[in-house]
Amino acid sequence: MLIFLFSINLVYGQSIPNLTVGYGDRFDILPKLVFNTATIEDYRKAFSSNHIVNKTPAVESKNLVIPTGKGKLKFKKYSFSADQGDGFRGWEYKGYLPELKMHILVSNHVSESLGFSDLVLIDSTNGSQHTIASIGDGAVEIPLPSPNGYFLAYYYNQVYTSNSCFIGVLAVRKGKAPFRIKLSEYNSFETDNWAVEDIRWVDNTTIIIKAYTLKKIDNENSKQFAYYIARLSQENTK
Length: 238
Hints:
By secondary structure, the chain is mainly beta. 6% of the residues lie in helices and 50% in strands.
């Protein structure tokens, strides 16, 4: 997956510190998540920290205006027009994560008629950016903070291969200027046996997955659900 860093820096005349995390080679040298089967009752009891605040950012001259403690940042608003050629299409606003004090945006780019996107977290206190790399063409799903805010869990379902997914966990640590916090790779998991419908935190170091497999029933794809639980590696756990 190519990370279009040049598109992320197209914030009119503004130089913004950016860190990219989630690279596969970094995850490869770290412990893997080990999933065991769980029940629907376990899933229903699990804590969900996905408290996304839905905001509608201001728009000025076709630019999204994102307020931060260091002033307002402007990002080219994504255009859905079908008559555009290759190139950077712009940004979409996905909400606000109050636990991390971060705005959620997705940058979009088209190359040879194929779409690519990246998920980017914008720190509302200082404007710094954290890009989460994807193993595919599209952006990863919105990451979920653990109850204590020390970890982020996210997933990516493969677009071209059904019943396949990647799950990543990032550590959230205090950063040094210009970053208030610093994200780093922690644990990961890949499978070609199921995809992710939803992810939740059971506690500060345990996640539970609502997974599905697509099966043909009466010539139509039907989701068959199952549940899996994993604890973060004891080698790394805070």
